[in-house]
Write a structure and sequence with these properties.
four-stranded antiparallel β-sheet; 318 residues; 12 strands; alpha/beta; Rossmann fold; binds adenosine-5'-triphosphate; eight-stranded mixed β-sheet; single chain; binds magnesium ion
């Protein structure tokens, strides 16, 4: 079956005055219909910019240098801006961490969802049906954003994103601003929408446990690279990349109450001054000389793709 999303060798750079520097390198991932793929990684690792590349909504000073992004087999990087307007909302939609920033305070939330429905269709009925799908009562339609809780606002955003039945929903930290119970409700709702509409979800989070509990596949990002792309079921048992191993090692549920909180030592290197070789070598306990000299290319181990010389040397990467 045709994949919903396929990203191959995506490279994005930023311009800063006359200088240009890499933001994303070597991003390869795909999502099958009705599959959830999570992107995890520390702040600044490139999760949102990967999503923005798919929506073709990168900031002005960022541009795709190389690579291919297919949405249901269609090359979106080759599309004009007017063609993209038919893609956004209809083939791929996006929701964000702060729903309130995307809702207009002056209009009822129902009218804002209905806005996305083409004229001529039974717009009100269609909107009401979507409110039912996202488990909001009918009277919420007539309320203003400030009258709703964060969880309800996120449900409105999901209704808006889903109203034209897209194949892909990109959810960028959709639960980060919510308490745990409300967050769980949103995650359950996303799964319900997937099953009802055959939807694929690209789920961005820095929470590895949440990623593994929600998604079938996990992509781990580090300094603008996808260092591991793996089945969620296996990643806790056998993380391959040293960074993935460290992320899992740091999860609070992995150690006894009262023991010291662990972190991955060091911080994400500055994109403007990335070290030569593997970008993780400064923090990696398995570092060998080769890691400081060359960037590891992707190696396939079973169904996992990993970029680390521990698993062989498939040659210089970009
Ligand atoms: N307009 C821009 N100009 C230059 N660099 C940018 C721009 N936007 C983002 N970046 C850089 O791109 C890198 C990736 O950013 P991105 O927002 O994708 O990270 P993220 O993984 O989503 O982080 P977070 O978890 O904090 O949301 C960061 O180093 C960021 O500073
Ligand atoms: Mg982000």
């Amino acid at each position: 079956m045709e994949k919903t999303l396929e990203i191959s060798n995506l490279e994005v750079s930023a311009r800063d005055g006359k200088k240009s520097f890499a933001i994303l390198r070597g991003i390869n991932l795909c999502a099958e219909p009705n599959q959830a793929v999570a992107l995890v990684g520390e702040s600044g690792s490139g999760k949102t910019m990967t999503a923005m590349s798919v929506m073709r909504l990168l900031p002005r000073n960022l541009a795709v240098d190389r690579g291919r992004i297919l949405l249901r087999g269609e090359d979106i990087l080759a599309m004009s801006e007017s063609q993209m307007r038919h893609i956004r909302g209809k083939v791929a939609s996006m929701i964000f961490q702060e729903p309130s920033s995307y809702l207009n305070p002056l209009f009822t939330v129902g009218s804002q969802v209905m806005e996305a429905v083409k004229n001529g269709e039974e717009r009100f009925e269609k909107t009401m049906k979507m409110f039912e799908d996202v488990e909001l009562e009918r009277n919420v339609y007539f309320q203003y954003p400030h009258q709703l809780s964060g969880g309800m606002q996120q449900r409105v955003m999901i209704a808006m994103a889903m109203i034209n039945n897209p194949a892909l929903l990109i959810a960028d930290e959709p639960t980060t601003a919510l308490d745990v119970t409300t967050a769980n409700g949103i995650v359950l709702l996303l799964r319900k929408m997937m099953d009802k509409y055959g939807l694929s979800v690209l789920f961005i989070t820095h929470d590895m446990s949440l990623a593994a509990s929600f998604a079938e596949k996990i992509g781990v990002m580090y300094a603008g690279r996808l260092v591991e792309f793996s089945d969620a079921a296996g990643i806790f048992k056998s993380p391959l990349h040293p960074y993935t191993e460290k992320l899992i090692d740091c999860l609070p549920e992995r150690y006894a109450p009262g023991s010291r909180i662990r972190t991955v030592e060091g911080s994400v290197p500055d994109f403007r001054q990335l070290p030569g070789g593997c970008p993780f070598h400064l923090r990696c306990p398995y570092k060998i000389t080769l890691c400081t000299q060359r960037k590891p290319g992707p190696t396939l181990i079973g169904t996992t793709t990993v970029r680390c010389f521990k698993y062989g040397d498939d040659g210089q990467d970009s």
